[in-house]
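User: Please predict structures.

Assistant: First:
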Amino acid sequence: MRDKVTDNCRIISHQNIRVLEEDGYNLIELIYARAHQKFSHGKIDQAEQLFRVLSSVDGEKIDHWLGLGICLRARNDHKNAMNAFDAAIKLDPQSPIPHLHRLELFIQEKEWNSAQASLDQFDRLVVHGIHDKLIAATRLFRKALSLRKK
């Protein structure tokens, strides 16, 4: 699988992307849309490959790392998923989204102190009115953590 990813990265070079963009195409957005579609249809391995390509070719976008991390988490590759979420945090330290995904991983791993730290960081960064859906998504995680304290 690694060779396919490497080959895809060679094919999708920055030069090719610029040419396509000059012709009115945004290849990165098309690949991202395809990766999202593959994931939505349960084709996690194919989505992961595309997110790996995106993270390699255009690694400055947080969404590419989040997508990769989500695919890896879906395959129970928690160590590499955490690495992808950490890369997302480095790219955008003010985003609460990677912390939400880290929270979920820590709960799955029963690492309660780390889960609480991720939730605390999420709470510091979240903006009410903008991240309301994310806040709602934390309800079950908050409940799981509160039950651990009893």
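Second:
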Amino acid sequence: MTAESKSPGKACLGGILGIMISLTYSGCFSVEEPVSVQDGAGREWQSEVEKELVISGLREGDPWSLAHLHLALPEESELQNSRDQLHQLLSDIDSVIPIHGDHGERGEQHPHLLLRTGVLLQGPVISEALRNRTQQELSKTSYVKEWRAVNDYAWLLDAAARCGLKRQVLVLDGTLGDLVDESIRTLEQGDAVISSILAKSPTLETRRPAGLSDPTVAGCWAFTCGGTHLLGALVECALSDLILPEDRKRIDALLSNFEKRLRWDLNYRHLERDRAIRAGKSSRKADRNFGLAQIKVLGHGLEVLSRARRLYPEDSQVFSSSMNQMLQELENLFLSGRYPGFDPVALLQQKVSIENPETWERAHGDLSHLIRGLRLAKDSSKY
């Protein structure tokens, strides 16, 4: 949810131990070993990143930056005043939810990003005021066919699901159920476009479709963060019974395809780094770009699959292979000296936000998702 790929006026916001990842492409979920998440207190890099996220997020102070900061650290004591102000804002049915802040075009600028953030921070019990505000926003919403607008529905669907709203709730040109069903079709179409790409292991010659491309070319990769926000919202819809029983298998299929895409993307990013270095590019720059790309995949992947595990309470090991692979990738990424050009704490500092704001956005947004993904992998019950 960062500025890695941008649509007009918006930003959508080596190898493991020297061995390339071995990929398998099957139609079933990974069900091997249980997921083991190290306590965050045991990761020196995580503590440093969390401290710098608070400093940089409060320093920037715009809606996009604060929304990501709350996502990463929903119980951070230094953010209590900001949480209180956000709740007060959203609880006023007549208030205007700010989008841009002083930075104008930071992040995707989705109108409902703060709404979803406020709902998420309340946990399992949502106030009547926030439920009413979410329903009001739904009543003004139409399923716009222009594909870039699809990105905004992720936040509204997520908020509606967490508020426990029903499929019959009205939107501008139909119902919430219609919005959910159309979102499923959108991701299915995106998966179909890139299925032939994911069917083969990437090589040094492979080029992934650019995120700025139309979905008819880039499939799910065209949407914000590869469509992970919309898929995550559909997971929340499934957890809240907004998915029709006959469509649950379609959610299963989307999640299975997502696993394939995660494995493919992780492998591809290693090859992309190797290709840049072989072409004579700076190894430090290659490390930085590789690290930024990896934290995007790892953070969003852990978020989606951690919550999705709750859809299969009878299977404690579902998605475990993919999640353990991501956790191992993460430990290798932050291993001291492995990628000298990737310094996430440095990327969050004010100098970077001034001189290279898009790099700062990528770091702040995706590190926020990564911290949240690690927390959910350990305990997916809230936030």
